Amino acid sequence: MIILDYQDRRPIYEQIVEKFQALILSGALPPKSQLPSVRRLAMDLSINPNTIQRAYAQLEQEGFVYPVKGRGNFVSPDLEPASRKREILFRELKELIEKGMTYGITMEEFLRYVEEQFKEGAI
Fold it and tell me: What is the H or E stretch that residue 120 is in?
């Protein structure tokens, strides 16, 4: 279900959040389905349970899951998948733009590249 990339510079909890978001938005985890328990997922991934708890807390904060006391975490039934996907995509795009700016890439270069990619994708 979840495969971590230990070469990735991002924290493990962020990778877990991203993987669950993808599973939820793709429909692999349908609304109201239960997520693995913190303890079980921590054992499966051989990582600290606090890392899983942090990822679940972020998923809850972003509205992807909701907790049920004594039962675990469940996929939120009222997600708007299309708007969530756009939100995630635009957040990632913003991060890429910020990174590119630190490398000296201009707005014109970004725009030209985006246009090229859209034209290639439209073919």
Answer: helix 107-122
